[in-house]
Amino acid sequence: MIVRTKRWNIPNFSTWGVPFYYIYFTRFSELLFHKPEEGFILSLLATLLSPLRWIISKLVESYYKRVLPIEKYGMVPDHSIFEAMTSSLISKLPEKFYDMMEEGKIILKKSKTFEFCEDGIIVEDKSMPIKADLVIFATGFKGDQKLRDIFTSPWLRNIVTGSLDSTVPLYRECIHPQIPQMAIIGYSESLSNLHTSEMGARWLAYFLDGGFRLPGIRVMEKDIKEWEKYKKRYNHENYRRSSISLIHIWYNDQLCRDMGCNPKRKKGLLAELFLPYGPTDYEGMGKV
């Protein structure tokens, strides 16, 4: 396995037996972050709780450094697990991954580049090839390029993904203000991609059925700027990935309000604050 960039790849989404969903995907956890159009009280609360956010991140990091041999194999990422969470650059390892490394069934090679040769591949700083019968590419994809390739018009190709110093300009992570005839489902990243995409699809279906009207272009562009501010605050170099992982409840609340649904889906204040939100919480909503 050729490792180009070290990432936080973990065996399961839990820490000390506590599922990630209870740590990062509740309304209380979202109070630790600044959010688009949050208002003074929530902004002040996020500032006051920022030390708690840092402590949780460091505790989670220390746990995985203890239970995984990532230091032994030189696989500790250069970025924090908090940065990985805010840009969805985190994934679940296959079962017994590091056990198979210990047995020599998986061998890691750290290399930024590689090239093919007759017998296999050559990694950087090595003259001898790694013999290979089969090479599997697991290098992701460029969503920006996919959007641009839809169009032949130079003007549309230029505006659809915005500039390099801005996020992809999608209102509700779905509709481009200047191309309202086109909707994009699934561009925003989260640790529950299907959940996020389904909510966007429900919102879009409700809109197409006449459930609500889009605001004006300037209003949509202003809303996009607010979300861009959040992404740049926490995602740093990865803000163009449009990750909404850690405030996906806040995002879903906006979709609910657009569809005229109550965004509070739990029974009772404690459940609303401390229980994670999932697909079943939104069952039956979004019908015209």
TrEMBL record:
Pfam families: FMO-like. InterPro entries: FAD/NAD-bd_sf, Flavin_mOase-like, FMO-like. Keywords: FAD, Flavoprotein, Monooxygenase, Oxidoreductase. It is an enzyme of class 1 (oxidoreductase). Its cofactor is FAD. GO terms for molecular function: flavin adenine dinucleotide binding; N,N-dimethylaniline monooxygenase activity; NADP binding. Its EC number is 1.-.-.-. SUPFAM superfamilies: FAD/NAD(P)-binding domain. Belongs to the FMO family. This is Flavin-containing monooxygenase. The lineage of its organism: Eukaryota, Viridiplantae, Streptophyta, Embryophyta, Tracheophyta.
